Amino acid sequence: MPKKIDHDARRRAIAKAAVTVIGVNGIDNTRLIDVAREAKATTGSITHYFEGKDAVMLAALDHVAQKILHLLKIQSDTEMGVDDFIDYASLALPLDEDGQRDWRVWLSFFGRAVGDPSLARINNAYYDEFRTGVAKTIRRLQKAGKILASVDPMVAADSIITAVDGLSVRAALDPARWPAERQKQQLHAMLSPLLPTH
Q1: 169 to each of 14, 104, 115, how far by Cα in Å?
Q2: What are the boundaries of each domain within the chain?
Q3: What is the pTM (predicted TM-score) of this model?
Q4: Residues 23, 94: contact at Cβ < 8 Å?
Q5: What is each CA distance from 122 to 58, 71, 96, 128, in whole angstroms?
Q6: Distance between alpha carbon 151 and the CA centroid of its chain, in Å?
Q7: pLDDT of 77-130, one tens digit each?
Q8: The domain 7-194: what is its CATH number?
Q9: In this structure, what is the dihedral angle of CA atoms 124, 196, 152, 168, given to the nearest 10 degrees?
């Protein structure tokens, strides 16, 4: 009997392999053969699942974005206070090797999106989802009386995302000076004033 193949799992494995390779080489220096080696596959099997290098690169970006969106889903299902919320937000920072790698991938796409309108639209769509998810959590905290009702959830969400992005760029480009604990302390210092409790 032929072996049953989980095609979705295979696509995810290829996307994850692409994240690893891009995290080391950057997008421009990533070749399909490098992704194939990392995925323990052939270039033929990769092109069976993806139309070409650009499609694999977008799958890598989506893999990174989905990790953040999953984090937002956990936040929306968890009872928390403001400090807990900031601690969850810190999980999007490059706190460890995986986070560093993911941010190198994200930064590679930032550079490309500047001159590629279709990639810019994809990037903006992810940020719209991030913004909606963060604002939803802020509204829930307001309803629970943990953040002042006067805080505009969408404005605060934009500020939080901007803070995470800025700090992550610094930490991704200079990890020696931005160890995990310093990143977390800095994020608390930046976000606490945006989320007043009284």
Answers
A1: 26, 9, 20
A2: 7-194
A3: 0.84
A4: no
A5: 9, 19, 26, 10
A6: 25
A7: 667 899 999 998 998 999 999 999 899 888 888 888 888 888 889 889 999 999
A8: 1.10.357.10
A9: -10
